[in-house]
């Protein structure tokens, strides 16, 4: 960058009547990028991600369409990009380069697999995710307590399924120790597990579990590593996407220490196509996102939402988003006109700018920009030409993606799933041992085999000790009679042989 636009501690966003910057000291006050389809939101996201990376701030972004993957490849000096660089004041200092990136994928196809264990998720988050009622949540809490007391790790969904089946079989024993466990509640919970399983949660739950600090990495040259989550398939499975986000946000919340205001964030999140997330998100996820937006600033984390309209974001979350970039909106219907008016009202008024009118007139690559400045007050909104990105616009090829994965600093750490002994295996062994013991108890003497008898404890009819039916009494009497007859016969044979020997 030239000295005209370069400022330490700030990300150059574009040029209005002056250079527009995102102050790194205020970047953890979160942000919002909005605009209609095709107006340049993804390019703005890329520009911001490159800026954070260049400043040494790790970035995590959900790549919905795959377009953002080009940030890992060197850009091409296309004429319109070079012209844009000149228009915003970059001039000859505009250079194309790739940014350090790591590709992630819950399904393990387009990046390193992401896994978490069931016990990491915990009963509270899992209950909220599954939208269990109070009784069902109580049963799930009991299940986790039983697993802890009996030293059975809960790692994947089959562990949880096996445990719930075991609790159903031991409901009286479990109920006496931990509280009542209704089989109907267990059935309802199992059905909720099935919904998760069908969306691919069996691939998410397991080991090796992701070390959340792998999202907070610096490249050898000091730039922040950009972690890109392949979310094209994930968005088609909203429950699974919610599971991942809920776990990730909670993990960050529990892991990162309080740091207060810092010269720059420790990590920045970008949620592209946020309207798809908010439209189908369970209540638990919305509550967690709201909590994160309000409180995670003190842990040095910034959160940025990219969506089509400011109204897509709940008011409780939108109120926390200080840095704003608004691309063009269209207003063909009364509802759209209302949205434009609402979007204009979110900005600090500029007396020289008819914000509502300009929103509908913006060209591709232009945006209304208002960033926090000084002590956190928003700047007056300005019509701004967004700077061009340095990395590639558009997705990487399949071969390029594989190359990035193979040279990743975490390559080989998560690729192979590990299925160590856990609740499912422990309970299976218990069942097999009980079956063997039962089979051994069914054995008896040779007279039992002949007469079809057996001990009271080993009886297949399950007759309790001391409680004999008429058939059992007759059988035992025949057994005693036959034993006496056989003993007498053997005695006569022995005596006869002795007498014969004396002759």
Structure, explained:
- The chain is an alpha/beta fold.
- The protein has 3 domains: 10-114 and 210-406, 3-Layer(aba) Sandwich (Rossmann fold); 118-204 and 420-425; 442-502, no CATH class.
- Helices cover 44% and strands 12% of the residues.
- It has helices spanning 41-54, 79-88, 118-129, 134-149, 157-169, 171-178, 183-198, 201-204, 238-255, 274-280, 283-295, 315-318, 334-345, 355-361, 398-406, 423-441, 446-451, 470-502, and strands at 10-15, 19-23, 31-34, 59-63, 101-105, 112-113, 226-230, 267-271, 301-307, 323-326, 366-370, 372-373, 377-378, 382-386.
- The strands form 2 sheets. The protein has a 12-stranded mixed beta sheet with strand order 2-1-14-11-10-3-9-8-4-7-5-6. A two-stranded antiparallel sheet has the order 12-13.
- Helix 3 (118-129) crosses helix 9, helix 5 packs parallel to helix 16 (423-441) and helix 13 (334-345) crosses helix 14 (355-361).
- The longest helix has 33 residues, at 470-502.
- Residues 454-468 have low confidence and may be disordered.
Question: Can you identify the CATH superfamily of the largest domain?
Answer: P-loop containing nucleotide triphosphate hydrolases
Q: Flag low-confidence runs.
A: 454-468
Strand-pairing-aware structural class? alpha/beta
Q: Calculate the mean pLDDT score and round it.
A: 86
Beta content: 5-15%
Number of H- or I-type helical stretches:
18
Total count of strands: 14
Query: Tell me, what's the shape?
Result: elongated
Report the CATH C-level class of the largest domain. Alpha Beta
Helix percentage:
40-55%
């Amino acid at each position: 960058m030239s000295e005209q636009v370069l400022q330490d501690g700030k990300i150059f966003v574009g040029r209005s009547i002056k250079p527009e910057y995102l102050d790194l000291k205020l970047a953890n006050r979160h942000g919002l990028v909005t605009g209609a389809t095709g107006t340049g939101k993804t390019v703005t996201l890329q520009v911001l991600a490159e800026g954070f990376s260049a400043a040494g701030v790790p970035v995590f972004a959900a790549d919905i369409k795959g377009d953002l993957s080009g940030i890992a490849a060197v850009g091409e000096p296309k004429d319109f990009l070079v012209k844009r660089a000149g228009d915003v004041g970059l001039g000859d200092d505009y250079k194309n380069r790739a940014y350090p990136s790591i590709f992630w994928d819950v399904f393990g196809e387009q990046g390193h697999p992401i896994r978490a264990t069931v016990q990491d998720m915990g009963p509270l988050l899992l209950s909220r995710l599954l939208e269990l009622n109070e009784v069902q949540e109580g049963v799930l809490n009991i299940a986790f307590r039983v697993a802890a007391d009996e030293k059975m790790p809960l790692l994947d969904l089959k562990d949880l399924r096996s445990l719930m089946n075991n609790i159903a079989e031991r409901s009286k024993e479990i109920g006496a120790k931990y509280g009542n466990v209704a089989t109907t509640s267990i059935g309802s919970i199992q059905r909720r597990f099935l919904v998760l399983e069908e969306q691919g949660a069996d691939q998410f739950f397991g080991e090796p579990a992701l070390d959340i600090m792998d999202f907070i990495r610096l490249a050898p040259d000091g730039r922040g590593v950009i972690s890109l989550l392949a979310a094209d398939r994930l968005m088609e499975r909203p429950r699974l996407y919610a599971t991942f986000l809920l776990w990730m946000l909670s993990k960050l919340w529990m892991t990162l220490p309080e740091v207060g205001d810092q010269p720059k964030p420790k990590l920045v999140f970008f949620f592209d196509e946020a309207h798809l997330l908010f439209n189908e998100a369970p209540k638990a996820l919305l509550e967690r996102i709201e909590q994160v937006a309000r409180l995670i600033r003190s842990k040095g984390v910034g959160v940025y939402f990219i969506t089509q309209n400011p109204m897509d974001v709940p008011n409780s979350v939108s109120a926390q988003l200080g840095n704003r970039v608004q691309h063009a909106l269209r207003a063909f219907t009364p509802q759209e006109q209302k949205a434009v008016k609402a979007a204009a009202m979110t900005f600090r008024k500029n007396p020289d700018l008819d914000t509502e009118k300009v929103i509908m007139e913006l060209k591709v690559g232009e945006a209304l920009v208002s960033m926090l400045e000084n002590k956190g007050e928003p700047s007056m909104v300005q019509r701004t030409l967004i700077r061009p990105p340095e990395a590639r616009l558009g997705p990487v090829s399949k071969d390029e993606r594989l190359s990035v994965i193979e040279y990743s600093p975490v390559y080989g750490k998560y690729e192979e799933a590990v299925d160590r002994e856990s609740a499912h295996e422990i309970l299976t062994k218990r069942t097999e041992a009980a079956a063997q013991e039962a089979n051994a108890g069914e054995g008896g003497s040779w007279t039992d085999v002949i007469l079809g008898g057996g001990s009271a404890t080993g009886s297949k009819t399950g007759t309790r000790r001391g409680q004999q039916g008429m058939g059992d009494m007759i059988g035992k009497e025949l057994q005693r009679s036959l034993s006496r007859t056989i003993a007498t016969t053997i005695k006569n044979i022995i005596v006869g042989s002795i007498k014969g020997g004396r002759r």
